[in-house]
Amino acid sequence: VKAESLDNATLVSGRGEIQTREAGAFLITHAFGGSIFTSPSEMSYEIIKFPYGTMLWRIDYGPTYDSAGRPWYHVRTYEGTVSGWILGSKGRPQ
Question: What's the predicted TM-score (pTM) here?
């Protein structure tokens, strides 16, 4: 299967695994960094916090808005070891 034959949300890795295609990057620009949560809500579980200047990959083109109207981005680390949601005010999409 070639990546071109799949939809925009997936790609095939060199090992033949289907993975999420990145929709761009997200740079953490908040002075105190930004936390990754399990869902687009600060009431969900905080997975990890990254410092100022960390670059993450956006999984969706997003944003997704919470009940207060705040934007959240679905992101993952470069290595793909952590994925979750970060509040849009913690940085900016690239």
Answer: 0.77
